[in-house]
């Protein structure tokens, strides 16, 4: 695994829009946060473009992302938001210069495609809030922890237990992100080797039978059986449809993972929730689950 250095005041960071355009001006407040951290913020030329539901044409979004990846002076890349569109351009991205000048890429939701693709290339990435939602109510702790990791390379988080949790301790890299996105990455170059990894999943706005179908896909594809642990984040606004399942999202996931003996943490504070805690992806972390708490620990070497 490649090592990416911590940020320091004065570093340049890039703002890009590889998926959908911002829905409000909240992202501008997010940029001010980055500036308050002492960073020099540089916006890509097409970051506010629109092309139907996308933040510009595929070529425009690709051009901006490629510029940010190539530029040696850029030390981190912050997509404004997710939405949809990263998977349309990922196969055209050239990571050869990025390999010479690796940098943190920070995001979640549709950015799962980029985060997982980097992990498949043996680079770490950060599943974490983006400028569009830096200042949402209830996100202060997550934002502070994101800053702490980016600048200090350390982060420890303890969360309460959950009735569905499976106890244990494991040290392994985390892969994953948004469940809907990662299921569509199965069989592509963007899906990292799942063997001996901790799979993180979260989602928003999915019907419960959709969640069930995606968990069946993870099981039938052999991915669940190769894992050494799981972290289940927020499943926001996932409700029954006319085709009912009879369980909530956590109950569905617990059913499909009950035959595996690895540690599983449910209701972990990450995903499409205000308290979207940062997760280091693709680099070894320590996960401890017992009757009193869930503890996640990682240090950037």
TrEMBL record:
Pfam families: Peptidase_S66, Peptidase_S66C. The keyword Ribonucleoprotein does not apply. The keyword Aminoacyl-tRNA synthetase does not apply. InterPro entries: Carboxypeptidase_A_C_sf, Class_I_gatase-like, LdcA_N, Peptidase_S66_N, Peptidase_S66C, S66_fam. SUPFAM superfamilies: Class I glutamine amidotransferase-like (SSF52317), LD-carboxypeptidase A C-terminal domain-like (SSF141986). GO terms for molecular function: carboxypeptidase activity; serine-type peptidase activity. Residues 13-128 form the LD-carboxypeptidase N-terminal domain. Residues 172-287 form the LD-carboxypeptidase C-terminal domain. It comes from the Bacteria. One of its GO terms (biological process) is proteolysis. Keywords: Carboxypeptidase, Hydrolase, Protease, Serine protease. The active site is at residues 109, 202, 272. Belongs to the peptidase S66 family. This is LD-carboxypeptidase. It comes from Sandaracinomonas limnophila.
């Amino acid at each position: 695994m490649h090592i990416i250095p911590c940020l320091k005041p004065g570093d340049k960071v890039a703002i890009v829009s590889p998926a959908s355009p911002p829905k409000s001006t909240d992202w501008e407040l997010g940029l001010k946060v980055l500036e308050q951290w002492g960073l020099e913020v540089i916006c890509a030329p097409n970051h506010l473009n629109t092309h139907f539901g996308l933040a510009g044409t595929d070529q425009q979004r690709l051009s901006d992302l490629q510029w940010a990846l190539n530029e040696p002076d850029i030390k981190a890349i912050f997509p404004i938001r997710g939405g949809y569109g990263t998977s349309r351009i990922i196969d055209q991205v050239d990571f050869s210069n990025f390999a010479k000048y690796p940098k943190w890429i920070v995001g979640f939701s549709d950015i799962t495609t980029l985060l997982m693709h980097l992990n498949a290339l043996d680079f770490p990435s950060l599943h974490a809030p983006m400028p569009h939602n830096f200042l949402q109510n209830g996100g202060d702790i997550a934002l502070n922890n994101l800053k702490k990791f980016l600048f200090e390379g350390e982060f420890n988080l303890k969360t309460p237990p959950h009735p569905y949790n499976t106890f244990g301790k494991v040290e392994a890299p985390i892969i994953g992100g948004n469940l809907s996105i990662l299921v569509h990455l199965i069989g592509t170059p963007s899906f990292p080797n799942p063997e001996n990894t901790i799979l993180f999943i979260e989602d928003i706005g999915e019907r419960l039978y959709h969640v069930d179908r995606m968990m069946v896909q993870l099981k039938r594809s052999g991915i669940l059986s190769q894992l050494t642990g799981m972290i289940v984040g927020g499943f926001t606004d996932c409700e029954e449809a006319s085709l009912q399942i009879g369980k909530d999202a956590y109950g569905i996931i617990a059913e499909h993972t009950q035959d595996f003996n690895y540690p599983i943490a449910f209701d972990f504070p990450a995903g499409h929730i205000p308290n979207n805690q940062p997760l280091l992806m693709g680099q070894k972390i320590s996960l401890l689950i017992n009757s009193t708490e869930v503890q996640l620990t990682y240090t950037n070497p």
